[in-house]
Structure formats: C-alpha cells, structure tokens
Specification:
15% strand; UDP-galactose 4-epimerase, domain 1; Rossmann fold; single chain; 301 residues; 9 helices; alpha/beta
Length: 301
C-alpha cells in the first residue's frame, strides 16, 4: 500500500512516518513524506499534480495550523489552512479514488457539557473557537468531496487531543520550564485545574492509524486518544513528579490566563475501538514511556 503523509515535519507527522516505515504493508520504500514544501496549506492548488506524481493509495492528512491563539487572531488564515486546504486535498483525492484520513481535533466540540461523559464520534459538533471551527470546516469539506461519487476512495476522520511527544515544546516541556523557574524563585507553579482532556502520545496515535489502515478499517470517524481523563493540573503534577522537581503546585482557574482563544473546558473524547480490540493505553503509561526522552531532551536544552 502506497501511503503519503502531509505535514511530515510536524510532531504527529514524524511519528506517522516512523510508524508507517515499520508497517509491512507499506513495502520496502515505506511511506511518502510530504513536508510543507511539497504540500503548502497556504497554496494547496498543486496537490493534484503531487498525487499524480507519487500515486499514493492513501493520504494521511496531518498538516494543520494548530496554534489555537494564532487561529483566533487570524480566523481567515485558520479557515484557509485547516478548512479550505483540506477541502482542496480531499477533492483531488476523491477524484482519483484515493483514500484519505483527515486528522482532526477534540476542539470541534464546545466542551460545555456538564454530565461528565466523553464526546462520542456521533455527538453534535459545536466548536467554540476559530481553531475548532476551522478544523470542523475541514471535516465537512472532506465529507462533501467524498459524498455522492460513483467511484471514490474512502474517507476517515481521526480526531485526537492534547498531543505530546518529541518536537516543538509540548505541554510537558513547557511545564518543566515553568516548574524550574518557580523552584528557582521559591514560588508556586500555577496550574489550570478546571480544564479537562485526554493527554495523548503522538506515537500511540500513529500506531492506531497504522492499525486502522492495516485492517482497511480507516473509514468513518474515529476518536484516537490515550485512556483516562486528566485536568491540566493532574498532567502537570505527573510531569513534575517524573522530573523529581520540588515545587508547590497552585491550582487556578482557566480564566486566570489571558489568551486570544480559550480551549474547551471539557475536551474529553470517548476512544473508539481499534480492530485488534486492544484500547490505546492509559495516558500515564504513555507518559512513563515518553518520560526518559522528555527529560533527556529537556536537561540537554
């Protein structure tokens, strides 16, 4: 199976390329990695020629503008990159009967539910910020591109949340930096205690997508997150403990921080079953796996 990955230079993109390289169904050549120079979200019109050149059977679309505050400051740019560009890619893939997996986000939901239940794939979407709205626009544009075609590929939507892993500073890295500063000055580390989600390791998401592709089960909407639920404060406490830092944690409200965009207060997704029947591991187990790399990189910085 010939698989291409957009956004191959990003956090999730790199994990996908690595996981697909180890998958026997991609063959000795492995996946095709499309960086921004190959597929630019600001100039997606040339993607048809790219598809004709590399002839993938499946495209995993991991490229996105994930700067939530940046999207709030430039909603038109967010719509272009996460909505319109996804539609252009989806149309080109559908015209060629190429399967497409679009990576999306928990932020297509507003996070306002009060019943403590995670969001299921068929729950009504209602994004509360421009980033979530732009990603939902991409989902809908892709669905429209694949709808009603007599001969078309298969469309999958893979929503995930709170990604962590190697690459640009992630939440654990930012917490380590903030905790070190707080410890040096003898002040508590202020952590948000009223924002809840599903911390998710990029390598586990990549493995889940590979499993779906291997079983030809990637069509439809999937929620790919590590198990368990955590507040930002819970996650921060786990990171600080793994680093052995001595610092007091001070729980604060999410409204304490002035931001251009506010993420959902309840961003928890209900994981969808994988073909193997084995769920993605608990986020704490994933953090334990990631911690040696995290701490080694952080201490070397």
């Amino acid at each position: 199976m010939r698989v291409a990955v957009t956004g191959a230079g990003g956090r999730l993109g790199r994990a996908l390329v690595a996981a697909l390289a180890d998958a026997p169904f991609t063959g000795p050549a492995g996946p095709t990695a499309w960086s921004r120079t190959a597929f630019d979200l600001d100039a997606p019109a040339g993607v048809g020629a790219l598809l004709d050149r590399d002839r993938p059977e499946v495209v995993v679309h991991a490229a996105a503008w994930t700067d939530v505050d940046g999207c709030a400051r430039d909603p038109d740019g967010a719509t272009q990159r996460n909505g319109i560009a996804t539609g252009v890619l989806a149309t080109a893939c559908a015209e060629r009967a190429i399967d497409l997996v679009v990576v999306s986000t928990n932020e297509v939901f507003d996070g306002a539910r009060q019943d403590g239940q995670p969001y299921a794939p068929d729950d009504a979407t209602s994004p509360a910020n421009p980033y979530g709205a732009s990603k939902l626009a991409g989902e809908r544009a892709a669905a429209e591109a694949y709808a009603g075609r007599a001969s078309r590929g298969v469309l999958g939507i893979a929503r995930t949340a709170w990604l962590f892993g190697p690459g640009a500073p992630d939440f654990p890295t930012k917490i380590l930096d903030a905790a070190a500063r707080a410890a040096a000055t003898g002040t508590p580390l202020r952590v948000v205690a009223d924002e809840w989600g599903s911390p998710t390791y990029v390598a586990d998401v990549a493995d889940a997508i590979v499993e779906l592709l291997a079983d030809d089960a990637h069509g439809g909407v999937h929620h790919l997150v590590n198990g368990g639920v955590a507040s930002r404060a819970d996650w921060a406490a786990d990171v600080v403990a793994r680093a052995g830092l001595t610092v007091a944690l001070e729980p604060v409200g999410r409204d304490t921080w002035e931001r251009a965009s506010q993420p959902p207060a309840w961003g928890v997704l209900a994981p969808t079953p994988l073909p193997s029947g084995e769920p993605m591991r608990d986020w704490r187990q994933a953090m334990a796996h990631y911690a040696p790399t995290l701490l080694r990189t952080w201490r070397a910085a």
